[in-house]
Design a protein that fits this description.
Layout: H1 2-18, H2 21-38, E1 43-44, H3 45-69, H4 71-74, H5 92-113, H6 116-136, H7 144-153, H8 155-164, H9 169-192, H10 194-199, H11 205-208, H12 210-229, H13 231-234, H14 240-262, H15 267-290, E2 298-299
Parallel strand pairs: 1-2
């Protein structure tokens, strides 16, 4: 009996990991920030539940389908070779059908319980991440990280559209922040794993253009993030607290990036920069939530 329970628990854990729960958590945070801004701080509870459920399912579907498509590539990389599909703990068809079913559930929930535009945006996000990024660009172009960032930048737009049923300037500003944040965030780890990507025949920027070109591109994106992050203030959807603290966060991120660019790549420096980049984004969206000048709350 204990062996059976352990086996079921391990398989359940593998299914959860297929869905990339850490990425889904970040997606839900940014989606809710978009909702909070659009609703001026007053949101119906059912709308929050259905939007986050549908968006979370779309993100989980993207993760499962990404694992399915990349299962052979994952075998050739130390970072991913212990995943459930490369190790044959799960059958590829299980991941495929999980991704398909989660996508269908996501679309149905968002289409019927939120609004059709939100459903189409979530479906487009999954399509872009799985087909445009994973199937096509990741295997053919070093621009995969930058162009592929479109999918990762859409969650706050989805949150905004769930409330307003249209796309406004604040939603586009949040999209731009996330789009600009993703490449340097990813390239920090890609530099550390360049040999693995080379072995897997994936044309990531560190493989095709080398360390220095990648570091320079990271620096340019991070420099652009500092003024871009203040756009939310100039659009008058957040207050001066956000303006000041976003600049402080941005300058801190920029200084860490400059230090990373100037020195040899190490596990410690990479983890430090990568970790702070996550805190930076979470900090920005927490500030949007706290300092958006909204009053009210979730209507039960």
């Amino acid at each position: 009996m204990n062996a059976t329970i352990t086996a079921v628990r391990d398989q359940a854990s593998d299914f959860v990991e297929l869905c990339k729960p850490r990425i889904t958590t970040l997606v839900l945070v940014t989606t809710f920030a978009g909702m909070w801004l659009a609703g001026s701080g007053t949101l119906p509870l059912d709308l929050v539940i259905f939007t986050l459920l549908g968006t979370g399912l779309a993100s989980s579907a993207s993760g499962a389908l990404n694992n399915y498509v990349d299962r052979e590539v994952d075998k050739r990389m130390a970072r991913t070779r212990m995943r459930a599909l490369p190790c044959s703990r799960l059958h590829p068809q299980q991941a495929l059908w999980l991704g398909v079913m989660l996508s269908l559930w996501s679309f149905a929930i968002l289409f019927y319980l939120v609004n059709p535009l939100t459903a189409y945006l979530a479906a487009a996000t999954t399509f872009f991440y799985v087909v445009v990024y994973t199937v096509w660009l990741k295997r053919s172009s070093p621009l995969c990280t930058e162009i592929g960032g479109v999918a990762g930048a859409l969650p706050p737009v989805i949150g905004w559209v769930a409330v307003t049923n249209d796309i406004g300037l604040p939603a586009l500003a949040m999209f731009a922040i996330m789009f600009m944040w993703q490449p340097p965030h990813f390239w920090a780890l890609a530099l550390l794993r360049a040999d693995e990507y080379r072995q897997a025949s994936l044309p990531m920027l560190p493989v095709t253009h080398g360390q220095q070109a990648t570091k320079t591109r990271m620096l340019l994106y991070t420099v652009a993030l500092v003024p871009l992050s203040t756009a939310m203030y100039w659009l008058e959807v957040v207050g001066p607290v956000y303006l000041v603290l976003s600049i402080v966060l941005g300058i801190t991120y920029l200084l860490l990036t400059i230090d990373f660019v100037r020195k040899p790549i190490t596990h410690q420096s990479t983890r430090r920069l990568f970790g702070f980049s996550v805190l930076y984004l979470l900090g920005l969206f927490t500030l949007i939530f706290v300092d958006c000048g909204c009053s009210g709350g979730i209507i039960w």
